Predict the structure.
Amino acid sequence: MKKAMAAILSAAMLGTLVSCGNSKNESKESENNSSNAGKTIGIAMPNQNLDRWNSDGEYLKQKFESAGYKVELTFSSGDATKQNNDIIGMIDNGVDLLLVAAVDGSRLSKTLDAAKEKNIPVIAYDRLIMDTNAVTYYITFDNESVGKMQGEYVRDALSLDTTDGPYNIEFIAGDANDNNAKVFFKGEYEALEDYIESGKLNILSGKKKFEMVTTPGWSTENAEKHMKTIIKDYYSDGEQLDAVICANDSTALGVIQALESGYNGKAPVIVGQDGDVANLKAIVDGTQAMTVFKNVKDEAGVAYEVCKTLLDGGIPAADFVKTLPVDVKYDSDAYNNNVKYVQSYILAPQLIDEDNLQLLVNAGLYKWDSNNKYLESAT
């Protein structure tokens, strides 16, 4: 029944789940391969330890190489200093364009100023790069909507509008140096703020501010340690924990592990983001309620089209979205990096729970395992 319902939902699926690799685009790539020869794209990814950055990096590398470009792909192990050095190396090697998913968006300005001096376009990928006018474009998902989706899911799961409560909730945010983590938290908290202020939702730990709930490196281990402390201090004497909003799936996994080892109450509603395989399994098993899926092929596909247009001498702008095979919004006045408003292309995220897991299979990124029970990577 679950998969039958998902099949119906898939017919109305958002455009963000449409693959960018259509035959029309592939034909154009083939025609332009000769003109792309000799041009090099520098791709700087923040970490190889999270599923999504591996997927993004390898997909982008394949996409550019299939169109005839050379690619320098680096993963910076969550180390901002290493990423700066990686990018300096790319600049010294004379790359024609930089696509950067920042480890710490506040620590790249001087390095990227050197790229600007050499007329190397810089595209911020997924995370906004702050304090520099070197950034040409920003490509990401609607991150405040991600947090809003998470908060509204908890609202509905706890029936906050139709029950008296009170209920207890905790927040586990992402890395303090990641601008996206702040935006996620803003969306989450604002979706539930009225219930918190009225006392229907209580935060027993008192951790109501982003700075109080951050997770260094977005790591599962750090999230688990944080959650274990919260359980020990506030939920070890029979207090019920009703919901935990986690910034992403790696932190959600840490929360699940902490609860399994030190919490005796009824399982709370746990929400995350990214669609990591371990968390999709947790959704099937009932230990995680939902995740927010961001189709990395779509994001990478938009990044590819923006970069290719720049390298071909074009200037992407508002009308550029009409040429893209996915649903994208252009915004030139919402994303300020403290120096300028960065022209941005914004994709829509998708809520995934036990009822619509089939959407991920339809997107081509996952497949059912041999028992037709859990999802696994299709790549």
